Amino acid sequence: MTTNTSQPVGANATSISPEPTDKQSQRDFAYTRDHLSPPEPSYSVSAEFVDSKGLRALFGISRSLAYILIAEGRIRSVSLRQRGRLRGKRLFSVESVRSYLASCIDEREVAS
After folding, report:
1. Dihedral in degrees, nearest 10, Cα atoms 60, 80, 40, 37
2. What's the CA gap between 56 and 52, in Å, rounded?
3. What is the pLDDT of residues 71-97, one digit of tens each?
4. N or C of the chain: less Cβ packing under 10 Å?
């Protein structure tokens, strides 16, 4: 008796499908095939609040610098955290960051 090794056998067996041809399907296939992390979200310039990744993407400000600026009162942020939880999500006010950057420009013009 010969068995066909090219086809999966059993209830939990899955067949391997050929790679898709269109671009979106190729990205989806690569994500499921390689278990890659999902693509980074794109950040809108008109957003009111962004997380630390958005702060870096929009303004080039690192998370550590952002926390320094918060401590100095130069930018504003809010922490979203459920009661009793240790971890939460910090969001930074885009308007306050823009104001801070504008004040940096004003300070340089006065110093010149």
Report:
1. 130
2. 6
3. 999 999 999 999 999 999 999 999 999
4. N
- pTM of the entire structure? 0.59
SS3 69: helix
**Whole-angstrom Cα distance, residue 92 to residue 31?**
30
* Residue 61 amino acid letter: I
Domain ranges of the chain: 49-81+89-111
